[in-house]
Each structure stands twice: as structure tokens, then as C-alpha cells.
Amino acid sequence: MGDRDSGGLRMVVTGIPRQRAGREERRDWWKSAACQDADPELFFPVSSVGLSRKDIARAKAVCASCIVRRPCLQFALATHQTYGVWGGTTEEERRRS
After folding, report:
1. Is the pTM of the predicted complex or chain greater than 0.90?
2. FRET label pair with 76: which of 25, 50, 67, 85, CA 20 to 30 Å apart?
3. d(CA 33, CA 37)
4. Which of 40, 94, 89 is nearest to 69 (CA)?
């Protein structure tokens, strides 16, 4: 939009309120998620016992290296995700939090 001089400091006016810009950044966390190229079914195992435990472990391994693990978990908690691995946690682990 333009530059403004504020007492010797130069500011760039973007036209986007700071609060709105922050919300946009928080909403776009998933663009940096480590699971982008993984099979979505890995994160939604059929159960939490038996062979599904291997899938849960593999999903959690993907989450462990993810730079947006915390926002992912916050999203799951805020939106009451009842199924799947989100932010490195299972539905059972999120219920206990």
C-alpha cells in the first residue's frame, strides 16, 4: 500500500490488519506439515490395537519430525477431532489431556 515515516522509523503499510494476518498464518500451518506426502490412511487407523499399532507408530514417527506439530495438535483439540493421529497424538491421548 505504501510507506509511512513515523518519527524517523519507516513502516510499511500492508492494508492487512495485524490480527487478521496472524490468523491467516495460523490457519496455513498445514502447508508445512510433514504428512503432506504421506498416505492419509496411515493417520486414521482402524483401531488402536493389533496391527493398527504399527500404523500408529509410523504416523507418530512422521509427526515427530514435523515443524508444525504443535499447531496441528491445537487444531485437533480446538475442533474436537475424535479420530486419527494429530500432532503426534491419538484420539485416546487427546481425551486424556
Report:
1. no
2. 50
3. 9
4. 89
